[in-house]
Amino acid sequence: MTSTAAADRTRVGILFGGRSSEHSISLITAHGVLGVLDQTRYEPVLIGITEDGAWHLSSIEELEAIIASEALAHFPGQGPRVTLPMGGGRGILLQDCREGLREGPALDVVLPLLHGPFGEDGTVQGLLEMADLPYVGAGVAASAIGMDKHFMKMAFESAGLAVGPYRVITARDWSRDREGSLARARELELPVFVKPARAGSSQGITRIDDWSELDGAIAVAQACDPKVVLETGISGREIECAVLDGRSHERPRASLPGEIEVVGQGHAFYDFEAKYVEAESSRLRCPADLPREVSDEIRGEAVRAFLAIGGEGLARADFFYTDEGRVLINEINTLPGFTPSSMYRVMWGATGLEYGELVDELLTLALERPVGLR
After folding, report:
1. pTM score, whole prediction
2. Annotated binding site for Mg(2+): which residue ranges?
3. 323-364 pLDDT, tens per residue?
4. Which cofactor does the UniProt annotation name (predicted)?
5. pLDDT surpassing 50 at residue 373
6. Which stretch of DSSP H or E encloses residue 364?
7. Rg, Å, the chain Cα set
8. What are the distances in angstroms from CA 186 to CA 150, 175, 180, 295, 315?
9. In what order do the strands lie in the sheet with 192-196?
10. What is the three-class DSSP state of 285?
11. Smallest Cα–Cα separation from 365: which of 289, 317, 314?
12. Hey, is 230 helix, strand or coil?
């Protein structure tokens, strides 16, 4: 493997933080990845993005201090400003008040550990494409589709995957025909989950059991995203499956399925607090206790969903296994949580691929793949 980095190590730009509501989770993910990155083979270059979108050079020591100081950490952006080169050359540009503009380290590959809008929605991926930098994960189109629950479901339906009943309310719909939007929403059966179309980590989601709660739930979702998706609550088990791309256009690989069970009080579903704040509120099981044929079906459907959106690198597909024995896909996440306790990592660990090996495989896939049209 060729490298521009010293001592023949591959220089990896690790992007973390970002402008989305999942900023803090991104920092936790980056900290976890750095803990298992083989630094005899890879040289990490940490680039943090503040909540207002400024890029700054960071360090392992700074990230560790941030994680240690706060339950939900925030990146302050104290190092030199970072600019990516456009139109050739992989050396990042650094700027600070003392030394002005200077050339920084050249990157071989970028590992974007950014969740939510302005991170996994195709925006950063487009920037990396313009900078001619290889990167881990889905490309521009797949990232955008995978971030938008509306277009994601359309892609699933087009590929013949079974999805639950849903409705969409756009900002235009809400502005021009609010009553019609509410009427379409009431065509669904209660309970209904009201979600921002383009947010993650279960933020902005409300379960409603009475239509009198609908207006308030839409307002909560619209605080995260003007476009809202409403889904009929599915009676069944929540099953997840991790997907890892194949090398050289080989078929993507699917992990053993895992299951999430919410056990804490005060959680009507697997919400943000159950995921990241109150660890005792949820139980993660892998492999899930499923009949062999159902497990195989879910693994096959996860790969189909990955291909339906044009996925690359990695993804986590989330399903419902209904009380009637049906498998329904709920959504796909093209940059899933990647902390040591995240389901993506746990499922691959149960399937035989440990955390460090998983990071190495993702970097290998990114370096194998060309930048641009493919």
Report:
1. 0.89
2. 318, 331, 333
3. 999 999 999 999 998 888 899 999 999 999 999 999 999 999
4. Mn(2+); Mg(2+)
5. yes
6. helix 355-368
7. 21
8. 18, 18, 10, 34, 32
9. 166-169, 228-232, 192-196, 206-208
10. strand
11. 314
12. strand
